[in-house]
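[step 3/7] fold_predict: job queued, chain A
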Amino acid sequence: MTVSSVAEVVDSVLTALADPTRRRLLDQLSAADQATASTLAAALPISRQAVVKHLAVLDAAGLVESTRVGREVRFAVRPDALAVTAGWMTSLAAEWDARLARIKHAAEAAEKRLETDREQLS
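[step 4/7] structure written:
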């Protein structure tokens, strides 16, 4: 996966997950394995049509998939986009950890030089 495609996936996932209703829908789907829009709407204070719109955003971000079973459309979580986003976050965290370690090392070295200088002056 190219850097730009990873960025696109991460952007769409973070945008989709910025809404608390969509996060709740994703939580519900994770717990239920799969569910219909009607089933999901029953647990939320919004209409079935609103749930369908939220599911469309989640689908566009690659977070859910829909499967037609007879007259029903069932939704389930797709973990791939979440895995890409988690990988990006892990990489970002590792970069910050490395930066903080360098700052800590520089501060400790500076403190050690100060102690040495103080001892030499005494």
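[step 5/7] annotate
Residues 86 and 109 are 34 Å apart (CA to CA).
The chain has a mean pLDDT of 93.
exit 0
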